[in-house]
Design a protein that fits this description.
The complex is a heterodimer of chains A (364) and B (565). Chain A has 364 residues and is of the alpha+beta class. Chain A is 27% helix and 34% strand. Chain B folds into 2 domains: 221 residues, MetI-like (MetI-like fold, Orthogonal Bundle); 225 residues, MetI-like fold. In chain B, helix 5 packs across helix 7. Chains A and B meet through strand 6, strand 7 and helix 2 of A and helix 20 and helix 21 of B. The structure holds adenosine-5'-triphosphate and magnesium ion (MG).
């Protein structure tokens, strides 16, 4: 599908602080693209660049085949002509306007007839669950309610592209889930392109067609479908960012890859490539444990009951890892371990990474 | 299908345009007149000539004026600092009864224009006809008057009475915001109140005291009214009064303009130095004081001195505020100056006459109100736009604007007036001299800084994303300004309006240099009537002015309270 937003070689610095360097990013028409990254990595800056509230120091931004900012030619199209809907990270609802007035504003700017405005605003307020609060001023609303007003305001005029900067961060879990389905439904229904910024990887996995992972330096480490990102992480940073991760150092012992400094062979295909040292990474849910049989032999160091799951800290030849088993399964399969118990471990999924990356990731 | 599509840009730099216009406005109204003064001071016949500058400076008359300015300003500064700091300490750090009320009472002197105060004191303490002097001479059968207000001492004392709130406010603020833990930790470690005050409190509030003192220095150096009222008769001129005298008497001859510009240059330079020093002092003192938070500071128990000190404070207010005000209204009520102030001699005739029949005063009231309204409205709107550029817009070159915007703070009124004369009397194609417009232009220059300050403060509160949100909702920059920014800064604009309207209403320094027979302002009318010997008319008009000021101040308080809600 064609790209609706193209960011080409964009650089942006504040003083000496280079937030983005030669950033490239394409967003396809009609997709829900999520930008995921740690705090301060430049997600908001990127949104502001696309929306036209900042200009790139270098590079070019194209929306819908129109160059909206180009440092080389000095071209710049003002925000109001870019036809985007935005939810700002700090909501930016106008404190002197009621909920209704806030939501109606984009429609007023389009000079739509009054009756239509009223109807659309009413519908939008219902969708975001703000019915009954229409006459309130933002100062009389909670943070989450303000966020919903911001969302309604961004959605009401059916923009073709939506930029959402942490639009759900202040909502409770139920509401967040509800709203994220709502956003997804609207996006599908109207074919809106959504660029969604968050550091919540769960939301990202749930709603995205594609995800981009940005590191602290503002570099995009990987772009791909949720499945690709989760199952085939490009590097250790991406892997670690997508959830709790275990890493085991490996050493090559007589042509076999073994855990730590020991001599137990890791029951998985070895790495290909030429890194000096390797670690293998896997998620707690990718670990299978058994009382006896095949696999790596380990000792339970700590056993935690977390309600739904049992959480074990296991030591193998000086290396530690965490895993979880469903409590129900643990009981029926005789997998309730105490501290000091021995067990055997196999993997459902495992990734090899250059050990040098581990240091880099741990540093930050 | 979605409707928001990308519209082609017109490619027009609105931001640059506003910036350019803002710079132009400030240059034309503020910078250019000042530059003309510097140019005229240093350039003779088109070539640079500092020797001439020096020659003018060392003429006995100008040199004396400089010395006088310095003497009066120093005495005023010392006096005000002592008085202001003492009262500030009393109302914040002791258990003086009715402290909050007393605190607001000490701000009342701000409302009384010092030239009106001077007028009152002249009637009370002039050597020959002052009421107090006459009373004392009759009482004790003296041949000589006891007091003479027409002295350095008299002038400074009157200035202190009406200027000390500058220090008072600063020091009160510092004492109230001071981090209590500093004092508490000293107390815990066993220091007595006296030691704490000397070692902790005084060093901490010193920057504020200094800053208040410097403000007064700046104000007094360039102060016209009191010296004009009390000094000129005895030949005591300071810099502003000499500039006035030169321009006024010679009808704008080259020599007098030159002297004026040289003196004005000295004023500008000393003002710049004072402001620079003030910035230094404030930046050094900042980190020690916690902003915003109120707390309960350590209070000194006055014990037996509580009530005597309260009576002293009330007596001070009574003596400096109530007595002069009463004298103004009483003298305004007698038919001839000098008549004893008895019940039979008093009537409202003068007030009726000056309000409804006497052209000079009627015009003056109209002029002042109209000028004040016009200046306040124009600077309010211009100020909001210019501060918008300064605070919010990301365009290159706004540094110039910031500098230009702050310039009027360091340019005294008489300098602005002189600059405006140089700029707008026809040499450059536009002649506003002798019209009311030249006063308006000068007011705009003079009060722009007030407006910039109030509006910038309000704009700082309006987060950038609010405006960005409206832009992204499809509003143009103008539309966003109208719908989002203006409503949110309205309280700031209203306060800017009053910050300009009220001082403009009582303005004397600028308008005295620019008035023509039909364009007197209230201040000018009071001053000239008094000079012409029409003391009762002048005084009655002063009474009316006081009423206007009090009403205006009440309105301000009302509006600012509302805005704060
Ligand atoms: N106007 C600005 N001036 C100077 N530095 C800025 C400005 N805006 C952003 N930065 C810096 O750029 C970096 C990226 O900021 P940004 O707001 O994009 O982070 P973010 O990825 O949105 O983080 P978060 O998830 O916490 O919102 C930060 O280090 C920030 O300090
Ligand atoms: Mg952000």
């Amino acid at each position: 599908m064609e790209d609706i937003i193209k960011v080409e070689g964009v650089c942006k610095a504040y003083g000496d602080h280079k937030v983005h360097e030669k950033l490239d990013l394409n967003i396809k028409k009609g997709e829900c693209f999520t930008l995921l990254g740690p705090s301060g990595c430049g997600k908001t800056v990127l949104i502001r660049l696309i929306a036209g509230h900042e200009t790139p120091d270098e590079g070019k931004i194209i929306i819908d085949n129109t160059v909206v900012a180009d440092s080389a030619t000095g071209e710049y199209i003002v925000p109001e002509r870019r036809g985007l809907g935005i939810v700002f990270q700090d909501y930016a609802v106008w404190p002197h306007m009621t909920v209704t007035e806030n939501v109606a504003y984009p429609l007023k700017m389009e000079k739509r007839p009054k009756a239509e405005i009223d109807q659309l605003v009413q519908r939008m307020i219902e969708i975001v669950g703000m019915k009954g609060l229409e006459k309130r001023l933002p100062s009389e609303l909670s943070g989450g309610q303000q966020q919903r007003v911001a969302l309604a305001r961004a959605l009401v005029a059916d923009p073709s592209v939506m930029l959402l900067d942490e639009p759900l961060s202040n909502l409770d879990a139920n509401l967040r889930e509800e709203m994220r389905f709502e956003i997804k439904a609207l996006q599908r229904q109207f074919g809106i392109t959504v660029m969604y910024v968050t550091h919540d990887q769960e939301v990202a996995l749930a709603i995205s067609d594609r995800i981009g992972i940005m590191d602290a330096e503002g570099k995009l480490r990987q772009i791909g479908t949720p499945y690709e990102i989760f199952e085939r992480p490009a590097d250790l940073f991406v892997f670690k960012f997508m959830g709790i991760a275990n890493f085991l150092k490996a050493n090559k012992n007589a042509g076999k890859w073994c855990v730590g400094t020991g001599s137990q062979e890791i029951p998985w295909e070895g790495p290909t490539g030429n890194a000096a040292e390797w670690v293998c990474g896997f998620r707690p849910s990718d670990v299978a444990i058994n009382r006896e049989g095949q696999g790596l032999k380990g000792v339970v160091k700590r056993s935690n009951f977390l309600g739904n799951t049992m959480d074990y800290l296991i030591e193998i030849d000086g290396e530690q890892l965490r895993t979880e088993v469903e409590t129900h399964e643990a009981i029926t399969q005789n997998l309730m371990f105490k501290e000091g118990d021995e067990l055997f471990i196999t993997f459902r999924a495992l990734h090899w990474f250059d050990a040098a990356q581990l240091k880099e990731v741990e540093e930050f | 299908m979605a409707k928001g599509t990308i519209k082609q840009d017109s490619g027009f730099g609105v931001a640059q345009l506003i910036l350019l216009v803002s710079i132009l406005v400030l240059v034309i109204f503020v910078a250019w007149p000042v530059l003309l003064i510097l140019f005229n001071a240093f350039f003779v016949d088109g070539s640079f000539n500092y020797r001439d500058f020096y020659a003018v400076l060392t003429e006995p008359e100008t040199f004396q004026a400089l010395k006088n300015s310095l003497i009066i300003a120093s005495m005023t500064t010392i006096g005000s600092t002592i008085v202001g700091t003492f009262f500030a300490w009393l109302v914040t750090r002791t258990d003086l009864p009715y402290k909050t009320f007393m605190k607001s009472l000490f701000l009342v002197p701000f409302m009384l224009p010092s030239f009106i105060g001077a007028l009152a004191w002249k009637m009370l303490l002039s050597p020959n006809s002052g009421y107090i002097n006459k009373f004392l001479m009759d009482m004790f059968n003296l041949q000589e008057p006891v007091f003479n207000i027409y002295t350095y001492m008299g002038i400074s004392a009157v200035e202190v009475m009406y200027l000390f709130p500058f220090v008072f406010i600063q020091v009160c603020g510092a004492l109230e915001r001071m981090d209590p833990t500093l004092e508490e930790s000293a107390r815990i470690s066993g220091a007595g109140l006296f030691t704490i005050t000397r070692k902790i409190t005084i060093p901490l509030v010193m920057p504020s005291i200094m800053s208040g003192a410097l403000l007064i220095m700046l104000y007094s150096m360039a102060h016209f009214g009191t010296v004009a009222m009390l000094g000129i008769e005895q030949g005591i001129y300071n810099v502003p009064t000499l500039i006035y005298e030169k321009i006024h008497q010679s009808g704008g001859s080259f020599e007098s303009i030159r002297t004026g510009t040289v003196l004005a240059t000295v004023l500008v330079v000393s003002a710049a130095c004072i402001i620079w020093a003030n910035q230094k002092v404030l930046s050094r003192g900042h980190y020690q004081i916690i902003g915003g938070k109120s707390f309960r500071p350590m209070e000194l128990k006055l014990r037996g001195l509580r009530w005597p000190l309260l009576i002293f404070c009330l007596a001070y207010i009574g003596f400096t505020i109530v007595l002069p005000t009463v004298v103004i209204f009483l003298v305004g009520g007698v038919s001839t100056y000098g008549l004893p102030l008895t019940w039979e001699n008093l009537s409202l005739d003068n007030y009726k006459y000056i309000l409804f029949e006497y052209d000079v005063t009627r015009d003056a009231i109209f002029n002042s109100v109209a000028l004040g309204l016009a200046a306040a409205l124009i600077t309010m709107f211009a100020g909001v736009i210019i501060s918008y550029v300064i605070v919010k817009m990301k365009v290159r070159g706004k540094g110039i604007l910031e500098f230009l915007g702050m310039l009027p703070f360091s340019v005294p009124g008489s300098v602005i007036a002189l600059g405006v004369i140089l700029a707008w009397s026809g040499q450059f194609g536009i002649n506003l001299y002798n019209t009311v417009w030249i006063i308006l232009v000068a007011y705009i220059a003079r009060y722009m800084a007030f407006s910039l300050k109030a509006n910038s403060a309000a704009l700082e509160q309006v987060h950038d994303s609010l405006m960005e949100a409206s832009r992204s909702c499809g509003a143009t920059m103008w539309q966003s300004l109208k719908d989002i920014v203006i409503p949110l800064v309205r309280p700031g604009m209203i306060s800017a309006f009053f910050l300009i309207f009220l001082p403009a209403l009582r303005e004397l320094t600028v308008s005295i240099m620019l008035y023509a027979p039909t364009t007197r302002t209230i201040g000018v009318a009071i001053y000239t009537l008094n000079e012409d010997g029409e003391t009762v008319m002048s005084t009655a008009l002063a009474g009316i002015a006081l009423i206007l000021i009090v009403v205006g101040q009440t309105l301000i308080n009302h509006f600012t309270k509302k805005a704060g809600e």
